[in-house]
Amino acid sequence: MNTKLINNIEQFILEIPKVELHLHIEGAIPLETLFDFIQRRGGEASIKNLDDLRRKLIYTDFAHFIDLWVWKNTFIKEEKDFEEIAYQVLCNLSKQNVKYVEAHYAPGDYWRQGLSEQGITECLIKGMKRARDDFGIGCELILDICRDNGPEKGMERLNMLTPYLGKGLIGIGLGGSEQTFPADPYADVYKEAKERGFRLTAHAGEAAGPESIWAVIEKLGVERIGHGVRANEDPQLVSLLKQRQIPLEICVISNVRTGVCDSIEAHPIKQYFKQGLMVTVNSDDPTMFNTTISQEYLVLIKKLGFTINDLKRLSINGIKASFMSDRDKKLMEHQFEKEWEHLINKYS
Fold it and tell me: For residue 171, which phi and psi values (nearest 5 degrees)?
């Protein structure tokens, strides 16, 4: 890297064109938006400013993280809050030159507040449309079928939200407690979803080992894998992932924050990349993990020895691994090539 690029690496990475494929929209609410919700809903004595909120969101272990997630959700009281959430999340991402997002959402988490899953979905879609008009950023939703709720609830949710397919909803994902609830019972839900035209992804190989990844490939027929960080425990699985080029939605800082990896340096992303696996870069729950998609790229170059050319490949992998149409992929890839060329010249 030349001196100008080294001295401006953070700005350079902020400006590179990006795609985000593994983002939980409720875990990406900007701090300012969440603070506003807290203030509007009666506040909390210990949170007087953004710094207080930042400190509140520091957790000690994964169970504490889940407690904070549930606590945060209690301040989302109305369906129309989701329009604001979608708009502000996408505004934030557009400032980092993210062009397109496939955002997971879990509408079943808000039944205690009396919010309907259809109403949440419609409000998210309104916010997405506003953001596209104002910032030019594209977004599609991935319905999170939570493992903990069982396949019957998963099918019910699929039936309830199928009318939004192609109108802002593009796929389904499988979140929840991977180590406790295996994927196999969801085979029928995924089969039905595929027949209806849903695109398929699932969290696997994060809290559980390679057997979890095998299950979502063989039983659910997923096109993409959320995390997949523990695939390297099974060389045969790594070979399959390489051979089939099944994309991995990698979230480095998330995996360190949740204790899946001991450190950034211990993360297998570089190993996967060198082995020729289809790797993408994502931020998961950026607000909850105190990260950004730009920060994810930055640690690759600062701590894992990735080159500028490697980052370019990773950013374009995001397009290739997305659920966009082939036509839209070609158009965006052409756009990315032009932007990368401009940036390289700018910082040369």
Answer: -160, 180
